[in-house]
Specification:
The protein is of the alpha+beta class. The protein has a single domain, classed as Porin (Beta Barrel). The chain is 18% helix and 56% strand. The chain has 3 helices and 13 strands, in the order αββββββββαββββαβ. It has an 8-stranded antiparallel barrel with strand order 1-2-3-4-5-10-11-13. β1 (24-30) and β2 (33-43) form a beta hairpin. It starts with a helix and ends with a strand.
Length: 223
């Protein structure tokens, strides 16, 4: 639904700007991954950008009392508006809306003794079974930032650009579950309660990521 709404808004803006021949395309790399934008004029000092970015990587990290192997997937579709305070100026203020597909999948890692420490209690990995989870954020995320570069400037066709801003992802939604418990039902029930507490601790540790920093550099071409 969010993707559809952003795409429809971008299509409407493209149609509104179709009477003007100017349009530019960018290729970018940064904290949101590798991406590209279409840029078209709205007003004399206002441009619109519609684009997408993607990246994924794997790393080890701790949250709560557990260590995890995490796989982060960054995938965004955005509709941004660049306000150049002075006509043809490279400096811009940017705001807009982003479909935020950022998410993290995670698998708990055993310690050197093949144990898990869950909510302060030690469990043998053979008793716990599989322990994994994930982190997701709100899909509709506002963006605010500043930037340098005006792809529709009349100075030249090729230009460099940069963005510095923040994506408001909201409170993270954490998930942590276990399956394949091999001990008695009462002990498995206690394990389940400890896993639930551990999930809350995990969410508390990652709450700082409600705001995701955006730093991008790119090159643009004006047609």
């Amino acid at each position: 639904m969010y993707i559809k709404n952003i795409a429809l808004a971008a299509a409407a803006l493209l149609l509104a700007a179709s009477a003007q021949a100017e349009i530019a395309v960018t290729a970018e790399i940064g904290t949101t991954g590798v991406g590209s934008h279409l840029i078209f004029p709205m007003e004399k000092t206002l441009n619109a950008r519609f684009g997408a970015s993607y990246f994924q990587h794997k790393y080890n990290e701790s949250a709560g009392t557990l260590n995890y192997t995490m796989k982060a997937k960054l995938q965004n579709i955005d509709l941004l508006f660049d306000w150049h305070l002075i006509d043809n100026s490279p400096f811009r203020l940017t705001g807009g809306l982003v479909y935020n597909g950022n998410k993290i999948s995670m698998v708990a890692r055993q310690d050197s003794n093949s144990n898990y420490t869950i909510n302060g209690k030690t469990y043998a990995a053979s008793q716990v079974g599989i322990l994994n989870g994930g982190i997701e954020y709100q899909k509709s995320a506002p963006y605010l930032g500043v930037g340098w570069g005006n792809a529709l400037s009349t100075d030249k066709k090729w230009q460099l650009s940069a963005d510095l801003g923040a994506l408001w992802q909201g409170h993270p939604d954490g998930r942590l579950v276990h399956s394949g418990c091999t001990v008695a039902s009462a002990a498995c029930a206690q394990l389940g309660r400890d896993v639930a507490v551990e999930r809350v601790k995990m969410e508390s540790d990652i709450k700082a990521y409600k705001v995701y920093p955006v730093l991008r550099a790119g090159v643009s071409y004006r047609f």
